[in-house]
Specification:
seven-stranded mixed beta sheet; single chain; Nucleoside Triphosphate Pyrophosphohydrolase; alpha+beta
Length: about 140
Amino acid sequence: MKASLTRQITVFVGLVVKDGKILLVRRNEPEVTGAHMKWEFPGGKADFGETSEEAIVRELREETGVIATVKRLLPHVQTVYWDYPWGTQHTIIFGFECEYVSSKKRKKDHHVESIAWVPLEKYYEYQTLPGGKEFFETLKST
């Protein structure tokens, strides 16, 4: 029996609200059935030498074309375990409230199936990744 691999990553997501709508991306990751085609806040990992704030600004721009500034770190941390064909990934997620500045054309991202500005009152109608609702509620309550 082959031993399963494990790894741990830290991810930063941005919660951007503009005109009563929140920015979401639909994840395209067929190898992870629990995440595939679910909605999430845009984000990702920091590149070597990047701060968490620099990473979320870059990830927002790359995934959605949205230019934003970081307002604050939200007081919620989410931990999720994902099963991949190679093993298990432990993902720790930090969320940032971000302020919309502008938009530009985005590059194609193979993990982003689509982008949507969702009315705040309709957020709960979307099938989201674990932790999404908790980040959304933290944003609204603080």
